[in-house]
Amino acid sequence: MTLVDETQEKIRDMILSGDYSKKGYLLSEGEICEKLSVSRATTREAVKSLEVRGFVKRIQGKGIKIVNNSSNVLTRSMVDMFSINDVDDMDLFEVREIIEIPCARKAAKRATPKDISKMQACVETMERCSIMDGEYATADNSFHQHLVNSARNPVLTSIITAYNMFLMSLIKITLKDDGNSELLMHYHRNILNAIFQHNEDEAARLMRVHLEASRANYLKYNK
């Protein structure tokens, strides 16, 4: 570990332990240099790294402000990773199963009336569509976003936000049949009902059924 890395971690420890002003500002660079016995150049590089990581932000004329932007930084990093690695659709299906099935369980336990209302609106939009068009796909995608959000886990929310652009493309690919599968199979309505009833096992089971059906429909048109 370099001296800059060590300094960065010491400043991070200061942040996590609440060693900053009531207004949310760290010590000045000069004070940090003195406190940690390092040069100004080392301190500047360490602070810059923490800014990239979403811990702090330099405010001109005021100092180094503590921020909580780590979730956005995590999301941006994962978006870049997915883009660079050219995500495979089957890999994405696996990720969805790993994340969204447990999230359905958590949502049945943690969803608020406001969460339920948002998912309800998505289901109603899907049910109004005569065919599975762009409006249907957008509502479908939003339903899954709201469901994961209602699990109340910021890391999981960051992950699904990161792969959302790929998820939207995947949803559009699976919506090849004529008609409206929501009116026929009620996948999302059934999941929502289980969440509303706080039935964790049933919510998880129904999400698995839905994702397996989506995978099967994808393979039907992409052999």
Helix-strand layout with pairing:
Layout: H1 3-16, H2 29-36, H3 40-52, E1 56-59, E2 63-66, H4 70-85, H5 89-110, H6 113-128, H7 134-149, H8 154-162, H9 164-174, H10 181-185, H11 187-196, H12 200-221
Antiparallel strand pairs: 1-2
Helix pairs in contact: 1-3, 2-3, 4-8, 5-7, 5-11, 5-12, 6-7, 6-11, 7-9, 9-12, 11-12
3D architecture notes:
The protein is mainly alpha-helical and 223 residues long. The protein has two domains: 3-68, Orthogonal Bundle (Arc Repressor Mutant, subunit A), CATH 1.10.10; 72-221, Up-down Bundle (Four Helix Bundle (Hemerythrin (Met), subunit A)), CATH 1.20.120. Helices cover 73% and strands 4% of the residues. It has helices spanning 3-16, 29-36, 40-52, 70-85, 89-110, 113-128, 134-149, 154-162, 164-174, 181-185, 187-196, 200-221, and strands at 56-59, 63-66. The chain has a two-stranded antiparallel sheet. Strand 1 and strand 2 (63-66) form a beta hairpin.
Key structural traits:
223 residues, mainly alpha, Arc Repressor Mutant, subunit A, Four Helix Bundle (Hemerythrin (Met), subunit A), two-stranded antiparallel ribbon, 12 helices, 2 strands, elongated
Task: Write a brief structural summary.
The protein is mainly α.
User: What separation lies between the terminal Cα atoms?
Assistant: 49 Å
Overall pLDDT level: 87
The CATH homologous superfamily of the largest domain is called GntR ligand-binding domain-like
Helix fraction bin: over 70%
Largest sheet: 2 strands, antiparallel
Tally of helical segments: 12
The secondary structure category is: mainly alpha
Q: What is the domain total for the residues?
A: 2
